[in-house]
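Incident log, support desk, overnight shift.

02:14 A customer reports that sequence design results differ from what the structure should imply. Their input is reproduced verbatim below. On-call engineer (initials T.W.) acknowledged and began investigating.
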């Protein structure tokens, strides 16, 4: 008997992903780095996450940030009191927002796929990033193909005053089909009807603003605020 706990590769894989995203507290990050120095398998797990995350930015053109950004960063780092941040205020266009959006979406999907957010096991299936062109509304979707469950995490944005956000599936040339009303915050867990599950792969998720309780016609009646294509995870 060595007295050592059994090796848990799944736990280390999650830990490596959290380290790659910078989610670990300082003491846990230092302990993880010390382990990597002596455990090749752990280094390989981290390298896999790092390479995968880096690939998410391939093809994104470089965009100059707003001129005021450096001044605000300097103020936050060196001033006596940090500046007040208003998430997404003054940002125009999705180009330079997408880097942060990808990081946020990856963080959400890491938590969902690890089973930390939902209490479910790792989800085989599909994902989608649902975003408005100006970044005013952003959601991350993860679909469990085995259970027919669709998880929607709100990253940014809210419904217009007095309205609700309704999620639609658009597959091929079919008319949009409602998947449900999204909550004001947090994670939505939606059951996808069995007859719709075969349409998930390659479909499009879209969000429209509707009256409270949803569209009265069974089709989108308000403005389509955001959309995103569903792709294999």
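02:41 Re-run completed on a clean worker. Output:
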């Amino acid at each position: 008997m060595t007295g050592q706990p059994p090796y848990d590769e799944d736990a280390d894989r999650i830990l490596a992903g959290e380290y790659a995203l910078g989610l670990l507290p300082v003491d846990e990050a230092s302990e993880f780095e010390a382990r990597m120095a002596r455990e090749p398998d752990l280094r390989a797990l981290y390298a896999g996450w790092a390479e995968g995350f880096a690939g998410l930015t391939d093809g994104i053109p470089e965009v100059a940030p707003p001129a005021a950004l450096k001044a605000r960063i300097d103020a936050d780092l060196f001033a006596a009191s940090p500046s007040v941040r208003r998430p997404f205020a003054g940002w125009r266009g999705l180009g330079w927002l997408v880097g942060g959006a990808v990081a946020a979406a990856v963080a959400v999907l890491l938590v969902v796929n690890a089973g930390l957010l939902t209490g479910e096991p790792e989800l085989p299936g599909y994902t989608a990033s649902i975003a408005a062109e100006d970044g005013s509304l952003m959601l991350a979707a993860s679909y469990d193909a085995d259970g027919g469950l669709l998880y929607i995490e709100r990253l940014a944005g809210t419904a217009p005053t007095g309205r609700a956000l309704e999620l639609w599936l658009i597959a091929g040339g079919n008319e949009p089909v409602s998947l449900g009303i999204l909550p004001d915050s947090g994670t939505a867990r939606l059951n996808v009807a069995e007859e719709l599950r075969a349409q998930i792969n390659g479909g499009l998720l879209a969000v429209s603003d509707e009256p409270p309780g949803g569209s009265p016609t069974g089709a989108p009646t308000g403005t389509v605020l955001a959309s995103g294509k569903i792709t294999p995870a």
